[in-house]
Amino acid sequence: MGAIETADEFGFRIYTEAWRRGWEWAVVKIVIGDGAVWIWNQADLHFPGAVQIVDLYHARQHLWDVAALLYPYDAAAKNRWMAPVKDLLDHGRIELLVEWLREITAEQAGRQPSLADEIRKQADYFGPNTERMRYPEFREKGYFVGSGVIEAGCKSIAGVRLKQAGMHWNVHGANAIIALRCCRFNGRFENFWDKATAA
Question: What pTM, to 2 d.p., does this model score?
């Protein structure tokens, strides 16, 4: 299951696959995403009522991006700045984290407006995702808070094959090879040929 496609096409594909795998029997239903609005729109549409979690490691990367903006040439200062904000994030204290980012934005507004604008964008990322970042609560319930396993699967199934040196793909060709590899690795190779011969 995989393709280069629109958000709506992806949403329908993931919905169909979830139901094929027994979504209706799941006691706890969870959607993990990187925080992009389109993901939550698709989750609300296809999986209403599911617990929504922002991947912790994507959220941390957003903080590292702020650290890089504030201290572009000072690795030690980046690490010092990251320690308390990472702690806030990891402990689900997102309101305080957003407040801190907004204070930094206000401090920088007069001195470096473009920097202030970039930090404001990061605060705007965390604010709407507050309830999706209650990591201590999620961990206490035994939920995953990272999407690394899925991303590693995507890399090993699609990325390794499509991103080799000198390769260039059109969407049709890339989708064909992704479909073939997904069927092979999922043990559904016959499905690929059934669809291919029917077309």
Answer: 0.81
